[in-house]
């Protein structure tokens, strides 16, 4: 099926805080849902179990959105979700690796004729077990992406993986790249992994729409003047299979106009596939 679809992704940095603590009547996650043109929205780092997530999103669900989620096994950490205006035909939790089955880092939903996955990669920490865990997750996701790539080739069903990848691919994807060359998120092996992944056919839709320029960033620290100075990272990707990526006609990074308007330390990244 080739119906137009608009997909948005954002790490909400705690869905209950995004709905309540950082929101007002006219500002925040719920007003954003009222205004968005997206047909599918991917959330990461919900930090909520399924019951808490449904409660926080009750006004959104009352408006007719359909929800698929992967709750974390550790309270207050991780958690990913996909919301769709059209019914969700199938849901798959986890990327196929038993180690990460209950981590709340990966959920796939078939909706509107495509497969949309919301993924939240570990942050990692250079030269520690946390980094080795991150790299095992990277390998598991890569294996699943090979299956999805073959799905488009054999059955014509496109796929897009949306989320917080916690990897800045190139120097254009991080403002202070010189200060991060030995830190998780900008390690040579992480960057090479993304290069190799894209070489298999997956398309970084945002970068293709904004070639050879810094950013557009979608994450800024809450601290200091990072947001005001646009000292950010581009780690929120939509990686699409080739035929679906070819349909991308609009790519928007929804950076708030001011620090006070933020309801997450990330901002939505929205792509229209015509």
TrEMBL record:
Its EC number is 3.1.11.2. The record marks 236 as: Important for catalytic activity. The record marks 166 as: Transition state stabilizer. It is an enzyme of class 3 (hydrolase). Its cofactor is Mg(2+); Mn(2+). Keywords: Hydrolase, Magnesium, Manganese, Metal-binding. InterPro entries: AP_endonuc_1, Endo/exonu/phosph_ase_sf, Endo/exonuclease/phosphatase, ExoIII-like. The active site is at residues 120, 164, 266. Belongs to the DNA repair enzymes AP/ExoA family. NCBIfam families: exoDNase_III, xth. One of its GO terms (molecular function) is double-stranded DNA 3'-5' DNA exonuclease activity. It holds the Pfam family Exo_endo_phos. It comes from the Bacteria. This is Exodeoxyribonuclease-3. Probably binds two magnesium or manganese ions per subunit. Mg(2+) binds at residues 11, 45, 164, 166, 265-266. Gene3D superfamilies: Endonuclease/exonuclease/phosphatase. The lineage of its organism: Bacteria, Bacillati, Actinomycetota, Actinomycetes, Mycobacteriales. It comes from Mycolicibacterium iranicum. The record marks 266 as: Interaction with DNA substrate. GO terms for biological process: DNA repair.
């Amino acid at each position: 099926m080739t119906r137009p679809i608009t997909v948005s992704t954002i790490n909400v940095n705690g869905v209950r805080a995004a709905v309540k603590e950082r929101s007002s009547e006219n500002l925040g996650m719920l007003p954003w849902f009222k205004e968005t043109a997206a047909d599918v929205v991917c959330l990461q780092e919900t930090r909520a179990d399924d019951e808490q997530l449904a409660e926080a999103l009750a006004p959104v669900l009352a408006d007719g959105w359909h929800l698929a989620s992967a709750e974390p096994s550790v309270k207050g950490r991780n958690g990913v979700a996909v919301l769709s205006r059209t019914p969700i035909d199938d849901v798959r939790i986890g990327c196929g690796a038993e180690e990460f089955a209950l981590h709340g880092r990966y959920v796939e939903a078939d909706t509107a004729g495509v497969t949309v996955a919301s993924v939240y990669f570990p942050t990692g920490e250079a030269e520690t077990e946390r980094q080795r865990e991150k790299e095992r997750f990277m390998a598991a996701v890569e294996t699943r992406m090979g299956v999805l790539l073959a799905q488009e080739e054999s059955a014509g069903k496109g796929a897009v993986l949306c989320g917080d990848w916690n990897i800045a691919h190139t120097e254009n994807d991080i403002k202070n790249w010189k200060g991060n060359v030995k830190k998780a998120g900008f390690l040579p092996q992480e960057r090479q992994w993304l290069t190799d992944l894209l070489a298999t056919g997956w398309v970084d839709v945002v970068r293709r729409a904004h070639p050879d320029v810094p950013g557009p960033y979608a994450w800024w620290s809450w601290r200091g003047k990072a947001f005001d100075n646009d000292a950010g990272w581009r780690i929120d990707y939509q990686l699409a299979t080739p035929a679906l990526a070819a349909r991308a006609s609009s790519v928007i990074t929804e950076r708030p106009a001011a620090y006070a308007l933020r309801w997450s330390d990330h901002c939505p990244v929205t792509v229209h596939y015509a």
